[in-house]
From TrEMBL:
Signal peptide: none annotated. Transmembrane segments: none annotated. It comes from Acinetobacter calcoaceticus ANC 3811. SUPFAM superfamilies: ThrRS/AlaRS common domain (SSF55186), Translation proteins (SSF50447). One of its GO terms (biological process) is tRNA aminoacylation. Its cofactor is Zn(2+). This is Threonyl/alanyl tRNA synthetase SAD domain-containing protein.
Length: 213
């Protein structure tokens, strides 16, 4: 099984290319001994980058294996696997923003039940708890801005059994296998694009700038 280096924040590593197979769609499926690439999953898109200077266009988990899809074949043996930093940072900021929204909403009595952190469609869905308070998108955005400005640090807890948790400052930890910013100030800003309650569930759509000034 491929060692998941991305779980500890690794962005580049010398790895072993174990297999490279051509696909019907013209791409090549590559299996590595270890990988810094975050595969698509957990509501987060996959990393992009390169293996031995060959472009990696997508990474997925298939039948328990991490598969890297490239535009060209890669020779078996030792190679440098390198994540595209701009894409990783953007996805990390989106993912951390979704967690922060969930934390803030929990303070007002709302429980997150589903989330996705896609650049074109980032959203978190909630159900009300007994302590739920009414608020709106503007208030939520202001609350998120407060914690971003406070620049709460990210705490990563990797347990021996593989279970992984993420928290910010004194907020409680959430189980998560995704990538995140090192502190909330790295998010830049969060824009709440829609805040809709329907059929007993609240859906919050949001975005962050692709680059931080």
């Amino acid at each position: 099984m491929t060692q998941a280096l991305y779980l500890t924040g690794v962005l580049a590593a010398e790895v072993e290319v174990l297999d490279c197979t051509s696909c019907e769609d013209g791409r090549f499926a590559i299996r590595l001994s270890a990988t810094p690439f975050h595969p698509q999953g957990g509501g987060q898109p996959s990393d992009k980058g390169s293996i031995a200077e060959v472009e990696v266009v997508h990474v997925a988990i298939e039948q328990g294996e991490i598969i890297h899809y490239s535009s060209q074949p890669v020779a078996l043996g030792a190679a440098l696997a390198k994540v595209d930093l701009n894409t990783r940072n953007y996805h990390s900021r989106l993912h951390s923003a979704g967690h922060l929204i969930a934390h803030v909403m929990h303070l007002f009595g709302w429980q997150a039940i589903k989330a996705q952190h896609w650049p074109s469609d980032a959203r978190v869905q909630f159900i009300p708890l007994d302590t739920a308070q009414q608020l709106d998108g503007e208030t939520l955005q202001q609350q998120c801005s407060h914690y971003i400005q406070a620049n709460l640090p990210t705490h990563l807890h990797q347990h021996a059994d593989g279970f992984r948790e993420i928290s910010f400052g004194e907020f409680p930890a959430f189980p998560c296998g995704g990538t995140h910013v090192t502190a909330l100030g790295d998010i830049g800003s969060i824009e709440i694009q829609s805040y809709q309650f329907k059929k007993g569930k609240l859906s919050v759509s949001y975005s962050v700038a692709e680059e931080v000034a």
